[in-house]
Amino acid sequence: MAETQFNALLAPGRIAGLKLSNRVLLPAMDMNLCVEGEISDGEIAHYTARAAGGTAMVITGTGAVAWPVGATSRHQPAFSDDRFIPGIRRLADSIHAVGGTLCMQLCHHGKTASVDTADGRPQLVPSVLDAKPDLSALRDSPMSELMGLATATQGKKASYKVADEDDLAWVIDQFAQAARRVKEAGVDAIEIHAAHGYLLSTFLSRGYNKRDDRWGGSLENRARLTCEVVKAIKVVVGADYPVIVRLNGFEFGLEDGLTPDETARAAALIEEAGADAIHVSANAHNPFADFTQGPLPAEVGQYREYTKIVKQHVTIPVIAVGRMLPEIADEMLQLGECDFVSMGRQLLADPDLVNKIREGQRKTVRPCINCYVCVEQNFFDGNPKCAVNPALCNESVAVLSSMTSAKHVVVVGGGPGGMEAARVAAIRGAKVTLIEKGARLGGTLWFSQLTTPANQLLVDWLTHEIERLNIDVLLSTEATREVIQALNPDDIVVATGARRGLPEVPGGALPHVLTGDVLRGLITGEKDADSRSLSFLGKLVVTAGRSLGLLNSADRIRSLSKAWMPVGKRVVVIGGGLVGLELAEYLAERGRLVTVLEEGPHMGLPMAMPRRWTAVIKATKHGVVLVRDASVVSIDKVSVRYRSGEDEFEAHGDTVVVASQVEPDTSLADSLRDLGIRVQVVGDAVTVGYIEGAMHTAHKVAREL
Ligand SMILES: Cc1cc2nc3c(=O)[nH]c(=O)nc-3n(C[C@H](O)[C@H](O)[C@H](O)COP(=O)(O)O)c2cc1C
Ligand code: SF4
Questions:
Q1: How large a percentage of the chain has pLDDT more than 90?
Q2: Mutation test of ligand 2: which of 325, 368, 389, 445 has the most ligand atoms closer than 8 Å to its C-beta?
Q3: Which of 73, 119, 552, 587 falls 20 to 30 Å from 42 in CA-CA distance?
Q4: Which residues does ligand 2 sit against, CB inside 6 Å?
Q5: Centre of ligand 1 from the C-alpha of residue 295, in Å
């Protein structure tokens, strides 16, 4: 057996009297699978899978203590009545049956209690603020999304009530009663949600709390509500019952928001009130601007400094969160910067992370690629789905049945769809041959890691799986009828990706107009790249880079491309979708003057909303000119003419990159249909759906072969 690493991560720990088998927790994440507040089988399957995968403690997605009052969804756990206890007990029993421990997160949603708005109640707040939120990011949302955003409130306008003494006494009691029910149901711990802009966190924050009574003003006063909730809970559940409190280490974009130092001092007060652990998260005042800072950070270990400061101020365990990958988590634990780590999206992507690490199989952990597809569904009051894990919220598909008879499956195309189909078929017992035209695996995913480094994790994981499962890989091989026939397969899966064309306008075929494929070839030095647009020097650089092996590593290309790239000073990108927008930012970061022309009214549409909002903001900050509703009329050597409304305009560009004109391409599959072998198509070749579409369609086809 391979040597076990991550000793700090795998060491047992303790919160109050509760023994935990290792240091990895699942933080609260709404699955929205409850039915009118009742725990459903889907919720149980979701959390049980993560507990069975070795996670020391799973914390359920936030539940409402006074549900439906103060609730954010009708699909979240409810704690407001004893009738909810049996459902919670079923969950606790299921978690215990696989050796796990269960914590439930208790919340009053305050100013985001959408159910209050839907039901015509005012939302409870410490103070009414006049400032209107900046909703400009929503201009890139089509009507379907805007309607989705209004689901939980049923499109009604929120009203607010400033909490008075009676309201606060009621809130404290509701928390205490909820905790009693949770304990009675056999749950091992509770977490009080005092972060993310919900009621308790708005009291804690000077930015939201403008009161001058005993609940506002000084930090002691602002922390009073959380402290009183902790004390009331302890009276009901007993001093020994573990109570965790989740806090914002920082509030992004909020004038007078919490600072790490204030959080640390608040944590000390909350410890004094009886809390047994502090969980350090963060939040953004305007989710439409800063959601990828908080509560779902884009950077690995983004809240590390906040956590360290809290740790210095308390004696109880501190839990770190924020793109915690095993390596940084182990390091932080070793350095004493925290006592536990929460891995959110990473455990959505792979529930078995802890078991795999314990078995010395770190590389087999399916990575989260930070794409925000999961959480986007929460904005629509829906169930998260994961781009890389089709079993999220549908655990039944995680179980892959063995094939009844061994088949030989030929997969054509070594991008994410092809690799995923090959992986799943091989796990099910098929002999798999994977044919790839290029010289390496990854396809467009390999290229995308240049602009989106987290995608590299997926390339690496899929490549490792292909090797681990002994899949035959034929690189630099054209999948002709003859090649396929010679392999004599039982099944063919075509994953050759989309067709990328040039715009059919005058000048559309000029040498400086590059499709994404050609640009990829030029930047990555692929042999078959069309180098017609390269100068002599450019050809020399690419040839030298290729022969020195410099172009085999995405990291190296990323840094080399800061010095030289085969594109001019002014670049026009045609198409402001996922690829166009990310490419624009990449080019702008490398000193190019970039204009993006998007034919439709919305930029970045295929990206999940939080990522889209950030991409638009970042591109704009880098000076990229974003033009919506722009249809290209013609292209010449120095510019692209486009029409917007009644008028025509010109965007200067000595290089034009076409990131639109992407269409499914079933031509190879169609040409193979008369071979008498079943042919199925996955990924962009059948419907352009990027990584999520590729992984999901491939998984489905391969699990049903
Ligand atoms: C789909 C989804 C739902 C979430 N719901 C909650 C929630 O109910 N309560 C909460 O405190 N945090 C919630 N979060 C935030 C996570 O607990 C976690 O702090 C965040 O995802 C950052 O950790 P990560 O980078 O490991 O994903 C949610 C995150 C996701 C992805
Ligand atoms: S959807 Fe994307 S961000 Fe969410 S868990 Fe899956 S890979 Fe990670």
A1: 83
A2: 368
A3: 119
A4: 345, 348-349, 368-374, 386-388
A5: 7
Candidate of 24, 25, 30, 341 to mutate for ligand 1, largest count of ligand atoms within 8 Å of Cβ? 30
Taking CA atoms, 589 is separated from 234, 559, 624, 676, in Å, by: 53, 11, 10, 51
Superfamily of domain 24-37+59-129+142-321+333-338: Aldolase class I (3.20.20.70)
Q: What digits encode the pLDDT tens for the residues 174-214?
A: 999 999 999 999 999 999 999 999 999 999 999 999 999 99
DSSP string covering 38-89: B--HHHHHHHHHHHHTT-SEEEPSPEETTTTTT-S-TTS-B-SSGGGHHHHH
Record the tokens describing residue 384, joined without a space. 């998260």
Q: Tell me which residue has tokens 């010095």.
A: 563
Q: How far is the CA of 461 from the centre of ligand 2 (A)?
A: 15
CATH of segment(s) 503-662: 3.50.50.60
Q: Please give the radius of gyration of the chain, using alpha carbons only, rounded to the nearest integer.
A: 27
Beta bridge partners of 14: 19
pLDDT digit string, tens, across residues 546-603 = 655 556 677 777 777 776 777 889 999 999 998 899 899 989 998 999 999 999 999 9
**Rounded distance, CA 446 to CA 461, Å?**
12
CA distance linking residue 474 with residue 494, whole number of Å = 14
The whole model's pTM is what? 0.95
Locate 239 and state its tokens: 């001093």
Those residues whose C-beta lies under 8 Å from the C-beta of residue 268, and which sit 6 or more positions away, are 313, 314
β-pairing, 491-494 with 499-500? unpaired
Structure tokens given for 532: 């017609």
The structural domains of the chain, with segments of one domain joined by +, span 24-37+59-129+142-321+333-338, 397-498+664-703, 503-662
DSSP type of residue 527: T
Distances (CA, A) of 171 to 63, 167, 369, 375, 571: 14, 6, 38, 28, 57
| Token representation of residue 669 | 């599959």
Distances (CA, A) of 580 to 526, 603, 630, 641: 21, 9, 14, 18
3-state DSSP assignment of residue 641 = strand
Span 344-403, pLDDT tens digits: 999 999 999 999 999 999 999 999 999 999 999 999 999 999 999 999 999 999 999 999
Q: How far is the CA of 342 from the centre of ligand 1 (A)?
A: 10
Task: Report, as an integer, the average pLDDT of 264-288.
Answer: 97
Superfamily of domain 397-498+664-703: NAD(P)-binding Rossmann-like Domain (3.40.50.720)
Tell which atom from ligand 1 comes closest to the C-alpha of 27: 17
Higher pLDDT, 149 or 563: 149
Distances (CA, A) of 209 to 108, 116, 169, 605: 16, 20, 17, 36
Element housing 626 (H / E): strand 625-627
Sign of the dihedral through C-alpha 546, 549, 552, 556: negative
Residue ranges of the alpha helices (H) in 469-512? 481-487
Q: State both tokens at 433.
A: 């041959």
Q: Residue 648, Cβ neighbours under 10 Å: how many?
A: 12
Atom of ligand 1 nearest to the CA of 76: 8
Please tell me the distance from the alpha carbon of residue 500 to that of residue 519, in angstroms, as a whole number: 11
Pick from 68, 69, 63, 67: which is nearest to 47 by CA? 63
Q: Which of 62, 97, 55 is nearest to 78 (CA)?
A: 62
CB 519 within 8 A of CB 567: yes
Ligand 2 pocket: which of 388, 609, 699 to mutate (most atoms <8 Å of CB)? 388
Please report the beta strands in 316-384, taking only residues with DSSP state E, as ranges in sequence order: 318-320, 340-342
Q: Transcribe 217-252 into DSSP letters.
A: SSHHHHTHHHHHHHHHHHHHH-TTS-EEEEEEEEEE
